[in-house]
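Tutorial, part two.
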Amino acid sequence: MAEGFARHLRGDVIEAYSAGVDPHGMNPRAIAAMAEAGVDISTAAGYRSKHVNELLSVAFDYVITVCGHAAETCPMFPGKAKVVHVGFDDPPALAREAGATTDDAAMPHYRRVRDEIRRFIERFEETVNPAAPAGG
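Running the prediction step on this input gives:
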């Protein structure tokens, strides 16, 4: 979801990549939640689940970890990458913990986290670099 919003909202200034330390494939509920927000993160749009090792050769300015497991196990990236942890709840885990077994019951968890990620991307610069001017 973060890569989708970064490309959709800030593609002019952010070159976004998303990967995981334990990728599980594209989550259909995440795809649906993003589609509701007007962002297509389906495989048809070129998105796919990747392992972080596929990106080790990319010269990142920032590496943003969004879950505790990634923050603890993310490999070191060569170069000047600043690693920033921004913890978001995991929608599948939230849905499981709530006993949500249907899309109707699970989707509110995906929507809440989706909206939190959107707000983070909208104010990305001020979050990762508090001295940066607001808005870009």
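The chain has one domain: 2-123. In part three we will examine how such features are distributed along the chain.
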